[in-house]
Specification:
The protein has 634 residues and is of the alpha+beta class. Among the domains are: 287-375 and 435-542, no CATH class; 551-633, Sandwich (Jelly Rolls). Helix content is 15%, strand content 30%.
Length: 634
């Protein structure tokens, strides 16, 4: 019987290993303790089977190699062995007498066989921390508490047995369960969701852990694109640590693309570029956060200051939060200074007297992607929203080649590898299948995707599935806006985009799926009929890069692929308006803006600039100043 019936969710923690020697992993209510070092942890979830070939080992299944790469990169890791109905194979469903995720002897036996097999593989590879490996935590089950009520007493027995089985593995690192309020005391119960600042562990000795930080939400066929501005999850994470959080894991961080028949990850993930300043600010106060006493003072209904103070060393770290979704506030901390706190934001104040971060004042780079080799150029912003026929983008003289299609009925061998007998013409679907099947296979070759004109089906490139297509599913034309007010608790019906368009037209083909020399084979399995003449391929490259930063921070810009910054199209330190591709000067700006940015960036593959009055010579005007830059990579 196959034994890969449960989904694995390894996570690469954004905390560095000190060495490859054996490590003792412990915890208490205020820290994860690794070899006596008290830590807070930020992590990113990776579905390694849905990553591309850089992580695709032996048919996407070699998770041992994946963890070894994590160790080589100097990272900690968390092993999540999740028992979920979505991951159970058909043979398990069809096992006589089985009741899945229940107090059922057949199910519990199969669960233990599988878990033990995985743990034994990890132990043999010496990957748990006490063996010198990177794995510092392990999970068993996933969100069973969300459905357990329907199982009654049997559900409670099942979760107890699950915990006993996990602990009996003797892996030497703590185990945890997600969304399990009544988790046995041998387990750390943890939180999943958009926010976890109000979560409390069921054991006062357990750390407060956020194992799935949902940084966005799913796109649905026929639905508009959900969007969550980066400032919003930044607020949620800062607020979580403000309220005593110890471990935060972004879900997803990599590998969420909808390859094969697996569901994709959340849309518009916020990655390291948006949140690295938050992580850096948290590391500054790590000792105070994990060893200090905690006091909180309210400054009105929605504003509070929490201080973590180590009375022995004198170290302090403060969080200043404004949870009001509309009103900005000014807060006077007496000898520790005065602070402007925007609505729905959290400030991190080093030593409680110098703000080093605020979640509403993000500094980040945006890359404008350009599609080449098509009948008409199109551009898209960093969120993947297409701007068709943009007047600022000239049509290319180099046109994409016409695709020559062949077709075949459903019943055939080796179709996914481009083999079989084909007729070199495209006929009406009913004629082609002779009413034997409702399905039709199309195949073409190309040296280099957009599925406009097709109905519904599945697509492969060189034998690799890149997912399902359904461009006939059109989002409602109403309810979208060019602006997004992220303030206030996130709801997936807010800040929608892509109204009136197909839910998905463009499909990313990883370079590792393509042949570097010779033709590439595209195969479509069409279910309801379509027109292949509208399908096109384009190469996506970075055109312009933009940066935006607030005063008293650092702006970093970089080009990809060894290219350098060739030109600065726009630069303004003051009150710039607009967005990437349409920046313009505001009511005031430093006259040295362009010259200072050109001096810092031009001719370099990457660089940074201090966003301050000292750099640009613009003196205090009583307002917070900003820097906007648009550059071109050469």
């Amino acid at each position: 019987m196959p034994n890969n019936w449960i989904e694995f969710l390894p996570l690469a923690a954004l905390a560095f290993l000190s060495s490859c020697s054996a490590a003792k992993v412990e915890y208490d209510a205020t820290a994860i303790v690794i070899d006596g070092q008290r830590k807070i942890i930020n992590a990113g979830a990776i579905h390694y089977p849905r990553s591309t070939e850089e992580y695709d080992f032996s048919g996407n299944l070699n998770f041992i190699k994946f963890f070894q790469l994590i160790q080589e990169a100097g990272l900690y890791a968390i092993l999540r062995i999740t028992l979920d109905l979505i991951g159970f194979p058909m043979w398990l469903h069809n096992t006589p007498g089985i009741q899945l995720r229940n107090d059922n002897e057949i199910y519990k036996r199969e669960m233990e066989i599988f878990t033990t097999n995985i743990v034994d593989m990890v132990i043999r590879a010496k990957l748990f921390a006490p063996q010198g490996g990177p794995i510092i935590l392990a999970q068993i089950e996933n969100e069973y508490g969300n459905i357990m009520e329907g199982y009654g007493e049997a559900g409670k027995n099942c979760i107890q047995r699950c915990a006993q089985m996990a602990v009996a593995q003797n892996v030497g690192v703590p185990w945890f369960m997600c969304q399990q309020a009544d988790a046995p005391q041998s387990m750390i119960n943890t939180c999943n969701g958009f926010y976890c600042d109000q979560f409390t562990a069921n054991n006062p000795k357990s750390p407060k852990m956020w194992t799935e930080n949902w940084t966005g939400w799913f796109k649905l066929w026929g639905g508009k694109d959900p969007h969550r501005a980066a400032e919003e999850p930044a607020f949620a994470v800062a607020r979580f640590f403000h309220q005593g959080g110890i471990l935060n894991n972004y879900y997803m961080y990599h590998g969420g693309t909808n390859f094969g028949r697996t569901a994709g990850g959340n849309l518009n993930q916020h990655k390291y570029g948006h949140l690295k300043q938050l992580h850096a600010a948290l590391r500054v106060g790590e000792k105070a956060l994990t060893t200090g006493t905690v006091t909180t003072k309210n400054y009105g209904k929605d504003v509070d200051l929490t201080m973590y103070a180590n009375n022995t060393t004198g170290e302090r770290s403060c969080f200043l939060s404004n949870v009001n979704g509309q009103n900005d506030v000014d807060v006077d901390l007496d000898q520790d200074g005065k602070y402007f706190v925007p609505a729905w934001s959290v400030g991190i104040i080093q030593n409680c007297n110098k703000e080093i971060y605020n979640s509403a004042k993000l500094s980040s780079q945006t890359s404008v992607m350009i599609r080449n080799l098509n009948y008409k150029d199109e551009t898209e912003d960093a969120n993947g929203d297409a701007n068709e026929g943009d007047a600022d983008v000239p049509e290319t003289e180099e046109q994409a080649p016409k695709l020559n299609w062949t077709w075949a009925p459903e019943a055939m061998r080796d179709t996914l590898h481009g083999k079989g007998r084909f007729r070199a013409t495209v006929l009406d679907q009913k004629e082609a299948t002779l009413d034997i099947s409702d399905y039709l296979w199309y195949m073409t070759s190309s040296n280099e995707s957009k599925f406009r004109g097709m109905g519904k089906g599945h697509v492969w490139v060189n034998g690799y599935s890149i997912g399902r297509y359904w461009p006939s599913q059109i989002a409602d034309a109403n309810g979208c806006s060019d602006t997004c007010d992220y303030r206030g608790s996130y709801k997936d019906n807010r800040c929608r985009t892509n109204c009136g368009n197909p839910s998905q037209r463009w499909y990313h083909i990883p370079r590792s799926f393509l042949n570097s020399n010779g033709a590439n084979t595209l195969i479509l399995f069409e279910e309801i009929g379509g027109n292949t003449t509208d399908i096109s391929f384009q190469i996506v490259t970075v055109g312009a890069i933009c940066g935006f930063a607030y005063e008293c921070s650092t702006l970093e810009l970089s080009c990809q692929g060894g290219r350098t910054i060739a030109d600065i199209q726009f630069a303004s330190f003051g009150d710039p308006q607009g967005s990437c591709g349409s920046y313009k000067a505001g009511s005031f700006q430093a006259t040295t803006s362009l010259a200072a940015v050109e001096k810092a960036f031009v001719g370099k593959p990457s660089c940074s600039i201090d966003v301050s009055e000292a750099t640009f010579g613009l003196r205090n005007l009583g307002v917070t100043k900003k820097l906007a830059v648009e550059a071109v990579c050469g």
